[in-house]
Amino acid sequence: MSNLDVRPKPVVCGGRDEVSAAPVRELLKARETNLGGGTVVRRLLPSLGRRMVGAWCFVDHYGPDDIADEPGMQVAPHPHMGLQTVSWLHAGEITHRDSLGSELTFGPRELALMTSGRAIAHAEQTPREHAPLLHGAQLWVALPDSHRHTDPAFEHHPDLPVVTGGGVSARVILGQVDGAVSPGTAYTPIVGADLVVNGAARLPVEPDFEYAVLTMSGIVEVDGVRLEPGSMLYLGCGRRELPLRADGEAGLMLLGGEPFEEKLVMWWNFVGRTGEEIGRARADWMEGDRFGEVRGYDGDPIPAPALPDVPLKARGRVR
Predict the structure, then answer these.
(1) Model-level pTM?
(2) Is 277 helix (H, G, I), strand (E, B) or coil?
(3) In which residues is Fe cation bound (predicted)?
């Protein structure tokens, strides 16, 4: 999924200086963005106060939207560099096409994982014939310097491991939960899991990881904080278990990982290390170099916005 802001601001993130070693409960505010086709997303990361959670550097939540008489998600071809995209659905279908020649329609709770590496382009669309509801999340994972120039790749994992017990069910999207390991390729110590909670539960977590939760459906208490759908709570580090409670079934995503030490520059759909690198990527996209062509999409690619007047510099992970 693309960042469709016509005047995107540079986001500087990474480094360990502002990672809390103790548990915190920091509610992140969402900002609404229209993706076209009737799809409005709530952008939760990066936010005014928090830019990363582990290697997770971008989180959009959308739906549930009634698209029975609407085209649904329509995101034209656009580039990515230096990151992985994680597409995750609770309802609906999305057709993914990329410049590697991949074309796939995936559905709820199937992992669609794209590694941009040095450069890739893709498009995402709701199919012409589609289910009446669309609900999901789009997330980005920053690649470490040792892997950010790797070959681009696309993975589809329809069957993911599930851990159940103590009032919670966890489907492992990336990394591992309680010994269950996702087949998705990860380049840093990371975890992503889709949780279903009914009643009181305690989920084991890693004390050296920082965590956040994104509430997808239902009302849930996370470490005593009441959350409604579409909200995201940053939790910091220092926990060995996470208390959860829901009166009735609730769905949420657990995102976490080892704090990302490297400092980054994120602008539009690129993650780099310097402003000059971002500028070269923008020029390559506009000139038709490096990122390739997405075949099978009926429409023009998304042009890159103008670069900001201020220099893009890598700094810390919070404002």
Answers:
(1) 0.92
(2) helix
(3) 78, 80, 122, 124
